[in-house]
Amino acid sequence: xxxxPLFLHNTLSRKKERFEPQxxxxxxxxxxxxxxxxxxxxxHARPYLTFDVLVRYLRHQGxxxxxxxxxxxxxxxxxxxDEGEDKIARKARLxxxxxxxxxxxxxxxxxxxxxxxxxxxxxxxxxxxxxxxEQLHMIEELMKLGFAYExxxxxxxxxxxxxxxxxxxxxxxxxxxELLAGAGNERRALEGQSEKRNPADFxxxxxxxxxxxxxxxxxxxxGFPGWHIECSAMSRKYLGEPFDIHGxxxxxxxxxxxxxxxxxxxxxxxxxxxxxxxxxMVTIDGQKMGKSLGxxxxxxxxxxxxxxxxxxxxxPMVIRFFVLQAHYRSTLDFSxxxxxxxxxxxxxxxxxxxILMQLQSEASADDFEVDSFVLSLYEALNDDLNTxxxxxxxxxxxxQIHRMHEGKARLSASSLRRLQQEVHSLVTGVLGLMATExxxxxxxxxxxxxxxxxxxQAKERRDFASSDEIRKRLESLGIQIKxxxxxxxxxxx
Length: 493
Fold this sequence. Notes:
Distance between the termini: 41 Å
CATH class of the largest domain: Alpha Beta
């Protein structure tokens, strides 16, 4: 049930636009993935959770989504530009191990954290190191077209040449003239950037220094790709140009996404994606959460409570609920107190949903308006994925659920079934919220106590066939029953 169109905010146009894919029902989505040189923190989780909801909702609407999210395992330098050491290589040097060992370890950790948060895996997860040929090919194209040049074995994108034909800065709103004026030129020259024609130029290929471990052969030098070229090459390979949606955090808007647009438009004459979506930052004390500032809290620390800023451990579903309580384009300020409030709110929210799913219809019903409530949930999602409004509307509906539970209001079978199906599909299927492990354990204990009581009553009636059947069915589900003198006990196998 969703007669309304979906509107998504497009950073490129700076307004909400009705989403219409180029080739319905196909949707191509590319999201910039992690640079795997450390544990993922809460700030990392926000973009992947945001676009997880988008993917789920598009599929709920009947679209066939190809979701591509890369792994950056080479080329991302320390200062997010063309200076400093490769982040993964530096970590490997400090740990006295191989860069690919570092990348593999933190990739596995990232996947485990995403799974705990119930974030669906992408359909394709390309690695930068596995797509060197595609990046070299694109660099060669740019050089032939006059948008790139070689200097001392490195290759740089020529922003001046690009700006003469295309609007450089169109995504971020940066003024091209200011970027090209050479602000910071003296500092960059001191840092070895004088090989560029202009300080605004950015690296497509970097010549490796003798101590640099990660290197590949190229027509220009033994070296490694720049950070920006990898996403242009991989999105082009798996989604073509133009594709529908490019996503990522707001911190990637400049220079990363601006550079992607420049590279792709220089090659193909058009912006690579029609929609550009950016989630806002997670902050602590008003500052962006990030490794560079040292104010981050890893997801594993949140899950086990092992951090000075945390008063307790938090279930991954509480973290997911906490993030979804804020609109993806607004800042999200972290505190242990805010998480504790989210934990209480999540329990109330899921308890109400649980009661709704257990309701039975009555023969006589005084139906209230179900359609308008369900429609309001879709209105929230169709308005640029407004998850906090959807959550608020479910909260507002909880008293009605409790009235039905107490027998003070009734629904016909068809209305109740529609309500249960829609709420379940939107809360569990789209928002991705599930009962916590603690709640699941409590429910399981209650169910098992009930089954053991039924089995005991069967034995007292000497209905041993039913008693044995219950035991066999439970064992097939991995639950072992041990009969004692006075009572039976159960355990998970």
